[in-house]
Amino acid sequence: MKDYNRDNIKLAKALRENMTPWERKLWYDFFRIILLDFKDKKLSVIL
After folding, report:
1. In whole angstroms, how far apart are CA 47 and each of 25, 33, 44?
2. Does position 38 have pLDDT exceeding 80, yes or no?
3. Which of 3, 6, 11, 37 would staple 44 via disulfide (CB 3.0–4.6 Å)?
4. What's the CA gap between 8 and 38, in Å, rounded?
């Protein structure tokens, strides 16, 4: 397993905030199909 690199946090945040229109559509279409449910701090995926 690779070591955790805290320097990547700023890059990842910038990439999430500045998505292209195609990336935005891809992610929102994905999350519309896959419903995520958080209960008691546990993630449940509903297909």
Report:
1. 19, 7, 10
2. no
3. 37
4. 26
